[in-house]
Amino acid sequence: MAFIEIHNLFKRFKDVVAVNRIQLEINKGEMLTLLGPSGCGKTTTLRCIAGLEKPEEGDIVIDGKPMLSKGFVQPSKRGIGMVFQNYAVWPHMKVFNNIVYGLKLQKISRQRIKERAQQVLKLVGLDGLEDRYPSQLSGGQQQRVALARALVSNPKVLLLDEPLSNLDAKLREELRFEIKSLVRRMGITSVYVTHDQAEAMVISDRIAVMDSGNVVQIGTAQEIYKQPANRFVADFIGTMNFMSGEVVEVLRDTDQVYARTEFCEKMLCQTLDSTAAAPGSKVYASIRPEDVQIFTEPPQAAENVFKGTIAHKAYLGNFLYFFVNINDTLIRVQVAHYLPQEEGQELYLFLDPQKCIILS
Amino acid sequence: MTRGNSMLAAFLWLVIAFLVLYPLSILVVESFKITSTGGWGLGNYLEFFRDTYYLKTFGNTLLLSSLVLLTTTVFGVPLAYILARYRHRGKTVFTALILLPIVLPAFAGVFAFIIFFGKYGTLNLLLMDTGLIDKPVNFIYGHHGLVFIQSLHMLPFIVLGLSAGFTNIDPCFEEAAEVEGASGFRRFFTVTLPLCTPSYLAGAVLVFLWPFTDWLTPLILGQVDFLPSVSYINIAYHFTDVHRKYMGIVAVVVSAVICISLFLLARWGVEKKKYTGLSKGTTSEGRVIEPSALVKSGAYVYMVFIAILVLLIPIVLGLAAFSRRWTLEPFPTYWTLENFRLILLESPGLVKNSFLFSGIALIFGIAFGLPVAYLIVRTRVPGKDALDFVITLMLAFPGIAIGVSYLLAFWQDIPLAQYWIIMPLALFARRLPYFLRMAHSSYLQLDPSLEEASEVSGAGKIRTFFKISLPLLLKGVLVGVVMFFIMAFQEISTAIFLYRGGWETLPIGIYLNWHRGMEFGIAAAMAFLMIVITFILLLIISRIGGGVLKAAWGAAEK
Q1: CB A272 within 8 A of CB A358
Q2: How many angstroms away from the CA of B442 is the closest CA of chain A?
Q3: How many CB pairs under 8 A join A and B?
Q4: What gap in Å lies between CA A268 and CA A251, rounded to an integer?
Q5: What is the ipTM of this complex?
Q6: Quick one: angle between helices B52-85 and B242-272, nearest 10?
Q7: Is the pLDDT of residue B278 over 60?
Q8: What average pLDDT score do residues B235-240 get?
Q9: Nearest-CA neighbor of A180 among A168, A163, A166, A167?
Q10: How many CB atoms are located within 10 Å of the residue A11 CB?
Q11: Which of A90, B86, B276, B298 has the most CB atoms in a 10 Å sphere around its CB?
């Protein structure tokens, strides 16, 4: 049994459906990320778990206890820790009082509270700052206070709502790893909300990609990157070349098909989902820029070799982007090393049939 | 908690129904009563609008409103621009001085200017002494005096709104106009001013409505042919003359209807014209420019001129308060504390009543206003917007209308008006918007996640309110509390209809002293005392709220 189970959760705001009957299971000790563009329902889902929103339908079970079906459990009684997007560190309390606020509500001795606070302060690297007011702290430090406050009472569940989005890029990256190792060390089941795919991939054990109130795909970072469930997921995570077309032939006893695309009559592609592969179905043949191979002479491969001209190229330091024009379709190619070819020159592209996937 | 919220909403609605909706509906119903037949109908209104005298009164009021609006606009626009855009020394002091009339009782200005600008007032006497004129000039008795006094009193509403508008405009709009080649006046009239229409409109409507509300200034200046003054005289002095009483009630209803409709119209206009959403964040200071020396000195002269006019009020009243027998002399010659002795020792009831009634009203205001602010900002209880709406409308309601309606509603069936509690209740109902606005805006600024973080940490709603929300709201709420108190302390338009022997407050005392033609110094001393008390309260606000400027801002939120 999963530690957190979300059954058929439905939440609307007036006429807008924010969460559309989603199912989700989060295992004990796991860090699951809800990833999606703004308005996809990820924050609402998180707030439903916290008890800050009351869903219209469905149930949330945390550690075997239903939060909704047997009467609404108030947020204060759910045993969760939460880090808010804007930190929500109380400006009228010193760091220490911010952190021990929840502990004081439990019957714990003063001495114990102090010890626990010191432990957590050390854990998040704030020791020595307990007598400061939040206004005397930097954004990153306030973020750590919020994290310490969420962790201090050893919650069963840790919820993080875009906790890093208000920080600058460098700090954000640093804190990603820090939060990940901290949470893993403490073994807390946690749900992390973000719209930043890189953050999601670094931090989570599994990712649930959400779109317009639905969970579109759940899986590890690798699964989601390599085998996206549909065009939305592939587009949202990483970069992808989409070539719209239609399945023309399904190869028996393999999971390969031929597709006709906007620039060629026949392209050999891999199917991830056999249901979409009936002849005549409209699909996208898709390939990641780094999977496209580039040749100056025609390569030996039998299939999927196309001739094109370089429309433009861009240098990004650790790699190059070539935008190659094949019959008026631009294919983005990521090249790891420097190539001398200039704009306007001809090239051969090999779209590896193993890497070229069919998406609906 | 949803059920709890609904019960709270129901209770608050009950209070509003009893203290606002019920008396006001009685007022309207009464205006349709035909006394000769005992029936109901439009008769009173027909009579009112057929009578040339009342029509003239109506026209006079409209004319006065237009003139006051014109004057405040002409003087206010440059003033607001100087305050908002020019870098100059003493900005805080000048702003505070120019905004001062907001918190001064309207009648204080009238008395001060009568003493200073009257036929044998200080200015005329000085001018005659120097031989510049032979006969005294009539500075204030007449329409021009009314326009002057009311304009000075209402000028802050234009200045406040506009200077905030000038400050808050995203500088990029003006920069874009500059790049396009529009400079100086052209830019000001084509870009800056139009962008500020919402802020102007919000202040302008209050200015325009003032002559429909202010009965006292015309009365003291001997100009009674205006709607509010006529209503007051008809109802307060001629209640035995049934015809005049009903004409008075009709006049009150007509003024109230005009006030409410214009107020709503302006609100709608402000909403429609809000441009703020178009810009990204602005700097807090806005565009501040360093004007040329010539412009700068001109600006100083202008600001000093207005500031002196404002300062005349406390200075002249102070002179009158500490003296006796100040007639036919430019300055008093006989100094005494007798006036204050009379007020504080002979009739201490006035001061005591003022504090008592305002204080009780204040307690009602907090007990009622905080829950309302909570409901409006934090919940989705049905009917909360209507609640907000009704309370906000009280801003536009003439005090006379509330006084008269309380008198009609709480006399026979519910004889509340026979007990002194009616005084604080009326003050509470009339001034509630002041507190509510402030509580409302501080609640809006309070990030909900601060409260949510507390709930997630294991604290219940009540604990969260007292540990997190209240301490964080306190600043804004305290400013609101003090503003409410100042406004309740000065209230006269409603109270004048409700007081009975022994319930007189300071403003009523001032009016009665003037009216009975007793020693003028006592009235002046009372007004001076009120100014001093107001000033002390303002100092308290500026301590909590950070600057007199912000304190005054609170008042402008109305």
Answers
A1: yes
A2: 15
A3: 63
A4: 10
A5: 0.78
A6: 30
A7: no
A8: 78
A9: A163
A10: 23
A11: A90
